[in-house]
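Milestone 3.1: sequence recovery, worked example.
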């Protein structure tokens, strides 16, 4: 079996069961906040994913899986490593490097005549989104959200380029879904603008419960010219199988648990939000946003609804993005020939940490410009540049560097009137309405060629003792059994 390949979500769940990374919850649990609270406890405690199969008010032929690739021990990203066919104890930066390597290869998808997602087909008056146990996750949420871990499929009406994304969907009623359209993103905003200018509805398909890598790629900031289905094939080592929708001219993963089809009407709006988000805040405000008229729902026998519980780190989006964003930004820097040792985007994915040995004065400005101009970096308002001796995945190491090497005046560089997302919690209401953001670069590197006599000599085991003493005392420590 090629690395990271699962034919569908159910095969991945079997893997999680073998690894002790999923727990069945058979007692009755309420969709109204209880599922959300239990999944939050699971995230906070780095517990296995949760499979709810007895949901209050619903038949047991539809279940919910939460925290599918949530944080694990000892490596936070253990379940995304499993999704890639790696050991769950693979170190974080090794997972990043492997994802970056695989993302340079593409394997086109293949079309199939049918698939499990067509087991049941409901059109027109038979559409009822409440047939699924859609959770109310957080008490402050504006409604029940069916789309929190899924794939949005849209198509550019000019080029025909297909985009996969992951944007939240609130259930307004039995056949209407909310849709969070973020400015400057080519799927939810730029394509929709093109359809609206033609006064045409935009076709939209939502695939819920795919094999893990396809959903991960949908939530990754892939360059606009890259095909997500082809990239998912490259990461999996096997093509994604697609099948045509019933009522819209789009294709979806054939093994998806649930597929929702429909159109986003031009110019019309419906109040949407708020929702507890990946930033750890219920940000974004409830306001009029585009919505989807659902024309068809198809689903597997005994469908599984995947649910993600966004909030204070770590959550699934943070786990996923810490790998995918790091890999995408690293590849963007390599493509421009900009040297670095390691790059890491920790949850809540608002910051990029890069370790470097600056080759010349002003290098960090070049580095930051390259990051902010990349698709994966455009919505990262904070960049921290640290020395190459710093472990970018170790918060203590990074904090030590920032508080000892960051010049309080000369090391902080701000940018104004930059692209933004309304989900940034620090924005004012006026900034959200105007669409303006700000960004900042923290340069926590010593100037190139700074003499160590200026106070830049590092005092740790590696730097403050000769190698022979290090080796001798490490062996002595082991012999003493000091732990």
């Amino acid at each position: 079996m090629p690395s990271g390949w699962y034919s569908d979500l159910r095969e991945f769940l079997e893997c999680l069961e073998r690894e002790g990374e999923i727990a069945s919850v058979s007692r009755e649990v309420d969709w109204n906040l209880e599922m959300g609270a239990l999944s939050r406890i699971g995230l906070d405690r780095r517990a296995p994913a949760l499979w709810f199969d007895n949901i209050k008010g619903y038949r047991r032929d539809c279940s919910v899986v939460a925290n599918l690739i949530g944080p694990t021990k000892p490596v936070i990203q253990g379940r995304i490593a499993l999704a890639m066919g790696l050991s769950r104890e693979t170190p974080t930066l090794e997972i990043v490097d492997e994802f970056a390597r695989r993302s340079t290869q593409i394997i086109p998808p293949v079309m199939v005549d049918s698939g499990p997602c067509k087991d049941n087909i409901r059109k027109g008056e038979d559409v009822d989104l409440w047939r699924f146990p859609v959770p109310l996750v957080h008490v402050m949420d504006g409604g029940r959200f069916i789309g929190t871990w899924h794939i949005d499929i849209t198509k550019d009406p000019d080029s025909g380029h297909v985009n996969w994304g992951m944007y939240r969907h609130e259930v307004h009623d039995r056949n209407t879904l909310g849709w969070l359209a973020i400015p400057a993103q080519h799927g939810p905003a730029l394509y929709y603008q093109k359809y609206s200018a033609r006064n045409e509805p935009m076709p939209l398909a939502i695939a819920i419960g795919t094999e893990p890598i396809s959903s991960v790629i949908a939530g990754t900031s892939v360059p606009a010219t890259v095909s997500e289905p082809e990239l998912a094939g490259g990461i999996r080592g096997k093509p994604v199988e697609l099948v045509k929708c019933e009522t819209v001219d789009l294709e979806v993963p054939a093994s998806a648990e649930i597929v929702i089809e429909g159109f986003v009407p031009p110019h019309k709006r419906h109040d949407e939000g708020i929702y507890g988000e990946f930033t750890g805040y219920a940000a974004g405000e409830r306001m009029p946003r585009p919505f989807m008229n659902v024309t068809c729902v198809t689903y597997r026998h005994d469908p599984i609804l995947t649910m993600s519980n966004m909030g204070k780190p770590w959550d699934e989006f943070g786990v996923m993005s810490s790998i995918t964003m790091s890999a995408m930004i690293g590849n963007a820097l390599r493509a421009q020939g900009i040297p670095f040792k390691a790059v890491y985007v920790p949850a809540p994915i608002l910051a990029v940490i890069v370790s470097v040995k600056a080759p010349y004065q002003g290098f960090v400005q070049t580095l930051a410009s390259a990051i902010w101009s990349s698709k994966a970096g455009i919505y990262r308002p904070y960049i921290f540049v640290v020395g190459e001796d710093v472990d970018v995945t170790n918060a203590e190491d990074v904090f030590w560097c920032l508080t000892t090497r960051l010049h309080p005046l000369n090391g902080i560089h701000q940018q104004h009137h930059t692209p933004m997302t309304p989900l940034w919690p620090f924005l004012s209401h006026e900034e959200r309405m105007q669409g303006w953001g700000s960004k900042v670069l923290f340069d926590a590197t010593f100037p190139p060629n700074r003499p160590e006599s200026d106070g830049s000599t590092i005092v740790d085991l590696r730097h403050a003792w000769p190698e022979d003493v290090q080796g001798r005392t490490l062996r002595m420590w082991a012999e003493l059994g000091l732990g």
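Residues 316-335 form the longest helix (20 residues). The chain has a mean pLDDT of 93.
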